[in-house]
Amino acid sequence: MDHFEPDPRLVEDSYPVTELPLCQLRLMNDTRFPWLLLIPRKRGISEVFELDEAEQQQLWREAGRIGQAFKTLMEADKLNVASLGNVVAQLHVHLVLRREGDDAWPGPVWGQGEATPYDLDGLAAMRDRVLAMIEGLDLRPEAAKAS
């Protein structure tokens, strides 16, 4: 992998959870919405098509499997998957769980009210839940499965 640093704005708004085969997984610091970020550990990438084909497949493998498990774990009504990049150009994918009647329902979460940060205990608990959740997921690239 290229030398990778997440954009400072992503670092400011989220906490690291773990490193996946392609992405750094982070937890957004807003208790109103269970919200994960996937940031491919590739320098200078702002669009999905700038990843090679295998990396694109891996990004969607990580997003799909983690999103499905996260939705089940948190008993959410809907999983929103987004890669906007209008404010932070560095490629990153949002996995935002939604519940009917949440603070922004049915609209988007962006620009809705003020974030409610995790306290240290809540952060540790959510991070532990997410780590336990992904422990059982096979996120290896297809090439690694064949060997």
TrEMBL record:
UniProt cross-references to SUPFAM superfamilies, sorted A to Z: HIT-like (SSF54197)
Domain HIT: 36-105
GO molecular function, one term: catalytic activity
Top-rank taxon, per record: Bacteria
Cross-referenced InterPro entries: HIT-like, HIT-like_sf, HIT_Hint
Entry protein name: HIT domain-containing protein
Natural source organism: Halomonas alimentaria
